[in-house]
Amino acid sequence: MKVPSRVLSLRNASFLGFARSFNPSVFERKLCCKKKDFLLNFNQVTQSHHAYPFRFLCFQRIVNDTQKLRCLPSSSFVQSRAVSGPYDVSTEARVASMVRGLSTRGNDIHVTPLVVGGNVAVAEGENNVKKNGVSAKSEVEKEAWRLLKDAVVTYCGSPVGTVAANNPGDKQPLNYDQVFIRDFVPSALAFLLRGEGEIVENFLLHTLQLQSWEKTVDCYSPGQGLMPASFKVRTVPLEDNKFEEVLDPDFGESAIGRVAPVDSGCSVSVGTSSKSEFIEMALLIGLWWIILLRAYGKITGDYSLQERVDVQTGIRLILNLCLADGFDMFPSLLVTDGSCMIDRRMGIHGHPLEIQALFCSALRCSREILTANGSSKNLVSAINNRLSALSFHVREYYWVDMKKVNEIYRYKTEEYSMDATNKFNIYPEQIPSWLMDWIPEKGGYLLGNLQPAHMDFRFFTLGNLWSIVSSLGTPKQNEAILNLIEAKWDDIAGHMPFKICYPALENEEWRIITGSDPKNTQTSVLNELCRPWSYHNGGSWPTLLWQMGRLELAQKAVSLAEKRLSIDRWPEYYDTRRGKFIGKQSRLYQTWTIAGFLTSKMMVENPQMASLLYWEEDYELLDICVCALNKSGRKNCSRGAAKSQILV
Which family is this protein grouped under (predicted)? Predict the structure, then answer.
C-alpha cells in the first residue's frame, strides 16, 4: 500500500525542511507494561533551525514475538511513555518550567500539588484525596473519568487527543472516531485541571505540525496558517510485516457539506467563492488552538511551550490570516453559514456573535503569548487596534435589552448621515413577536448576528458566555447576560443545560433558513409540520456546561446534568423545548459531553482555577482609536460619544 503524502510520517518529513542528522549515541530503556517488555530505542536527534520541528516523526511496530517502538524526539523532548492497549492516565503537574512525570500503580494513592498563582490545587488520584480532607467521587464522576481515559488516542506511544465519541455499539462512526480540535478543548481542560498536561502538550505540538500541510479542495489551496478540523491516527502496513502509524488530517475537504471550522483555526471570507467555507472552518480551529495554548500555560505554570520558535511562528501565521485586509468595513469577522459549533445551515452567515467572541479571546490570548521583540511590534499594534474596534462594535451595536428594543421599535429608516441613529438601516418590523414578551425587565444579551438591514435576535448561548469569558461585553453587560439566563432558566436550561440557541426555527422559517434540514427537527421532512428544538435548532448541549460564568448557576446546572447524563449514556445533545429526550440522532458516549461535565465539576469545586481562564476588563482598549491617526481630516467618530455609555 502506498503511504499517502499528506499524512505525518518519517517519509515525508523532509518537505518541512527537517534535517535528519543523527548522533551515534543511543540509549535504551526497558519499560514493563502489562507484563510485556518493550524496548524503547531513543535516537538523539540534532536538527537545524526550522519553524516546524517534530516532536515525534514516526512510529514503527514490528509484528512478531517482540515489539519495538521507534520514535525520533526533537531537542525539546523530555520523556515519553509507551502505552499498550487503553491509555493509562498518570498524574502529571508542571510547576513553572519544571517538567516531571509520575505514574500510578496498583491501589496506591497518587496526589500531586499544582501551584498556580500562590494557590495550591490538588491533582486528584483515583480516591479523590484533597488538600483539606477526603471527598469521595460520585459514581458518575468515576464513570466519566473511565470513559474519558478510554477515549484517548495515542501516537508514537504518547497520548495526542480524544476521539469525538466512543460508543462500542456504533457500527457507523463516520468521523466521530477522529480527534477534533474544537471538541478536544473540554477534554484538555479536564486533564489540565487534574494535573495531567502531557496529552495537551502533545496535542498542541502535533496539530501545529499539521498546520503546514498542503490543503486542497477542487484544485484550490489556501495560504499557510490553516489548522485541520480534525485528524486520525492510521496504521499503514509496510514491507516485512512492519507497520507505521501516521497522522491523517482533515481540513474540511472530507466534511459533510465541506464546511470548515472557522473557530478551530481562524478565517475570514475574502470574496464570494464557495472555497471560503473551507478556509473558514480550518482557520477558526486556530482560535480554539490559541485559547487552549494560553490555558495550558495558565493552569500548569509552564510557559516554555508558548516560547518555542515553532509555536510563536504558528501563532503569527494564524493571526496573519485573521487580520488580513478584506472587503468588509466592520472589525468583526465575516463568515459563511456553518462555520462554528453550528456547522450546518442555520442562518448564521455574516458576523455571528460566537465567532466574534472567540476571535476576541484569541486576540487577547495572542497579545499575552507573543514574545516581545522587533518582529512582533507591528503585529501587537494590529491586535490592539482590532481589539479596540471589535470591542466597541459589539458593545455598541450587538447589545439588546428592554431599552434597546424600544429604541429599535421607534427607529427611522433610510437615514443618510454620519450621525444616523439607525446605522444599519434596521426595519422595526424585524423585531420578532416572541421577543417583546420574552426579554426581562432586568437583563439583556448580545445579538446572534448583525449586518446591514439584518439583526438576528436569537439568543446564542455559546457566543454570550464567551463574550463574558473574554470581556468582549462590558462588566455591566456581562452581569446582565447572566441575569437574563437566571430569569429565563426554564427556556435556556430546562431539564438539561444548555440550549445552543433560543428560540428554535419553525415551519416555513425552518424550511427557508435551514434548507429543510431534517437533522434540525424531530420529525421527517415528509410531515406537514416540523417539530423544532433539536440538534442546532434549539437542542440542548451538555458540553456547554463548563462555560457558565456565575458560580451558583454553574452549580445548579452541574447538579441538574449529573442526575441524567450517566443514565442516558452521555448523549451528544437533547431534543424538545425543555431538553427532556435524548436527541433523535444523538451519538452516545460523546466525549465532549463527558469532558464538559468533568471540567465544569472541577471548576465549581475550585473557582480560583476557573478564574485563570477569564479576562478582566481592559479599559485602555477603548482609548485606542485609528481615527486619531487618520490624516484625511474627517473628525466624525462615534467612539467618544458612546464611551460614557459603554463604560457605565
Answer: Belongs to the glycosyl hydrolase 100 family.
Tell me whether residue 546 is in a domain: no
Closest CA to 222 of 286, 279, 283: 279
- Report the number of distinct structural domains present in the chain: 1
- Name which of 480, 471, 400, 482 is nearest 620 in CA terms: 471
Q: Please give the Cα distance from 129 to 110 (Å, whole number).
A: 9
Range of the domain at 205: 139-263
Q: Which helix (H) or strand (E) holds 481?
A: helix 475-487
CA distance 329 to 611: 34
Measured over the CA atoms of residue 188, residue 189, residue 190 and residue 195, the dihedral's sign is: positive
Read off the pTM: 0.76
Determine contact, residues 493/560, Cβ cutoff 8 Å: yes
| Vertex 345: Cα angle to 340 and 351 (nearest 5) | 50
CA 130 vs CA 15, 120, 143, 299, 581: distances in Å: 49, 10, 19, 18, 36
Angle at which helices 309-322 and 353-369 cross, to 10°: 140
Burial (CB < 10 A; 0-12, 13-18, 19+), residue 2, is: exposed
Specify the higher pLDDT residue, 599 or 638.
599
Q: Look up cell 466592520; give the residue.
A: 330
Q: What is the pLDDT of residues 182-205, one digit of tens each?
A: 999 999 999 999 999 999 999 999
Instruction: Flag whether 191 is in a domain.
Output: yes
Where do runs of H (alpha helix) occur along 269-399? Answer: 275-283, 285-300, 304-307, 309-322, 353-369, 374-397
Which residue carries 490570516 as its cell? 321
* Residue corresponding to grid cell 469569558: 469
CA angle 517, 165, 490 (to 5 degrees): 60
Alpha helices in 122-247 (DSSP H): 139-150, 181-193, 198-210
Burial class (CB in 10 A: 0-12, 13-18, 19+), 234: middle
Please state, in angstroms and rounded to a whole number, the distance separating the CA atoms of residues 261 and 241: 38
Rg (CA), the chain: 25
* Position 198 in a domain: yes
- Cis peptide preceding 54, ω within 30 of 0: no
CA 488 to chain CA mean position, Å: 26
Q: Could you tell me if residue 222 is inside a domain?
A: yes
